[in-house]
């Protein structure tokens, strides 16, 4: 090797060594400024005591972390700092933490802060009495109660909290409460993303606003847009309504909610329930409405006998004091003493008026037009017409009267004969009910026609009476005709049963539809298409919070303690402020390490 090569080699080695030294120095804790430097071997063996002066605080740097305080104890061999008084720790532009006391290990990069701890990042602020901060994982953790403030999302308090800085995620456990101007949220397990304001709730949880209270055991809420959804025993309580379902979506900006699968909407003021498998609810000062479909069923609860309404689609509109229930397409009503079927049924809960309507979408000659005409059954009587109105007393829950408009037709099977039917038809029918909700009196007006099976007191058939008149008035007793009177009779004839022509025993328009009559609540759903409910995918199940003091962190702490124990005059410092459960876990880790050795 010539002289020039030797010189070049020496320079190269020197530069490499200098770079190595500089790299090592960067890993060391650097004292950037101190007013006074003293030693106190009795109280702080092997340490430097750094104290501020009148101009500025003690300033310490490690990697990209800056720390200021009034007084610091620096254990250089352990790379350990104890900082007292107006302590401030800043890491780049992401973390700004202040407290009364901080201890920091350069070996583990774990900081422990106590006394009025405040940790700020660009998105939020954490306050707590004690806090652990792992710089390597970029996670902060408190376990004795803390508060997180995010300007737009509100204030969150919990017993245990953890902040994953890299993904801007908070994970709160036990007694979690979020409060902002629009809502208060309570939960046991609560994940919150500070950059989006998204909150995920697990376990029994509530979201309370001025207008509603939402309960769920799994849910999501966007604190920025004020929308969310609730799963698992989900329920929304308004002032007068309770909405329950497998999945609930709600928008607190518009007071809108929708529900999917196994829905139950309870009206606490009107004592009614609506069920189905898809529903939408909208509430405002101007509008209050409910839409429900998929096996939709409205139940008006009564003390003795509830009323059930089913249709392809149900709507409930109006304020609580004046609800109107409408059933569209294949609408049916069932009550023990009365049932009905129509293309559309409308019920006014305030006035007690129920309308059975045939939607005018079929021509009179349509094959299905007769089948779609409104029909009402009461005891043994079947009544049909173009439109039927049924009036009840909302207070007494009793039927009052009945009106059939246009093409009124009432049929009842003769109680004894095999194929005999009492029949009355006319333009309009008016009926009145007795206290037992049985049809007591019926008047048929205009172009009245009738066929009656006349019987004596022994119920022997004395003849079949057929007549035409201007009107007919009848009295019923338990569904049987007790008395009748014809007015302005035009034509009348009585046939003996043996001589009665068969074609004379049926009035034009006769349509006995007893097979369509709902005789139970289950019958309301006969003929409905098969029900296929969607699968609710929703949120994943809660993943329990991993230990902040996991094996990787405890290994770092153990290594720092092991290095300190080599110095007989030093005491391990890295582990001294561990929570008890972390200390116990570290002992197990130490025992396992010794066993392996």
TrEMBL record:
<feature type="region of interest" description="Disordered">
    <location>
        <begin position="561"/>
        <end position="597"/>
    </location>
</feature>
<feature type="signal peptide">
    <location>
        <begin position="1"/>
        <end position="19"/>
    </location>
</feature>
<feature type="compositionally biased region" description="Basic and acidic residues">
    <location>
        <begin position="561"/>
        <end position="570"/>
    </location>
</feature>
<dbReference type="Pfam" id="PF13100">
    <property type="entry name" value="OstA_2"/>
</dbReference>
<feature type="domain" description="Organic solvent tolerance-like N-terminal">
    <location>
        <begin position="27"/>
        <end position="187"/>
    </location>
</feature>
<dbReference type="InterPro" id="IPR050218">
    <property type="entry name" value="LptD"/>
</dbReference>
<protein>
    <submittedName>
        <fullName>OstA-like protein</fullName>
    </submittedName>
</protein>
<keyword id="KW-0998">Cell outer membrane</keyword>
<keyword id="KW-0732">Signal</keyword>
<feature type="compositionally biased region" description="Basic and acidic residues">
    <location>
        <begin position="581"/>
        <end position="597"/>
    </location>
</feature>
<keyword id="KW-0472">Membrane</keyword>
<dbReference type="InterPro" id="IPR005653">
    <property type="entry name" value="OstA-like_N"/>
</dbReference>
